[in-house]
Amino acid sequence: MTDIKIADLRKQYKKGGLVDHELPENPVELFRKWFEEAVESEVIEPNAMALATVTGAETPNVRMVLMKGLTDHSISFYTNYESQKAKDLNAYPVAACTIWWAELERQVRISGKVEKLTAAESDDYFRSRPRESQIGAWASNQSRPVANRKELEDNFKEIEEKYDGEEIPRPEDWGGFKIIFETIEFWQGRPGRLHDRILYQQTAGKWNQQRIAP
């Protein structure tokens, strides 16, 4: 087996750039534009993001989740409210996330305070999910130990049979969170590692923009 020299792995970025005078005052406009371009470019899982939280022991915790909502003020995702991420967010209602679109050589970092979505918002999204995903929300006690794979499959089959021919209700311990925008940073790869980094920070309801060194 050939040894891989990790330190020698590198890529020359040259697909685009961020021009100062073309940047919008509101970063959400640019985020929407970049997200649409990621979808149009058929990026794999364009809404996938690494979500970082703080545990009760005040240590960092990160995992991949899917962004499922975008407004002018926040992004949202869904989870089991008994999961580790939900416990983290209940203890420390702040979060940061990173979205990486490798095909476009782009990254977006977002941070802010976190709030639960309303029950009505969670109900609406749950009803839009594929039936198998709805069953999975009931069958999996997320982040808790299971004896084996069969236990999960048996739970799934039990729920499937229970609601055969019926609408599946949203579990009370399943729903959404939203990250309210406080900072949004855009990263565009450039040649020679002189990447573009544009940081937007919100103060007193106003966005302040700053280019920072890569």
Core attributes:
single chain, about 210 residues, alpha+beta, Pnp Oxidase, Chain A, nine-stranded antiparallel beta sheet, 9 strands, globular
In words, what does this structure look like?
It is a single chain. By secondary structure, the chain is of the alpha+beta class. It has a domain at 14-120 and 175-211: Roll (Pnp Oxidase, Chain A). Helices cover 26% and strands 33% of the residues. It has helices at 27-40, 84-91, 119-128, 131-139, 149-162, and strands at 48-54, 60-66, 69-70, 74-80, 94-101, 106-116, 174-188, 196-203, 206-211. Strands 1, 2, 3, 4, 5, 6, 7, 8 and 9 form a 9-stranded antiparallel beta sheet that branches. Strand 7 and strand 8 (196-203) form a beta hairpin. Helix 4 packs across helix 5 (149-162). The longest helix has 14 residues, at 27-40. It is globular, with a radius of gyration of 20 Å. The mean pLDDT is 94.
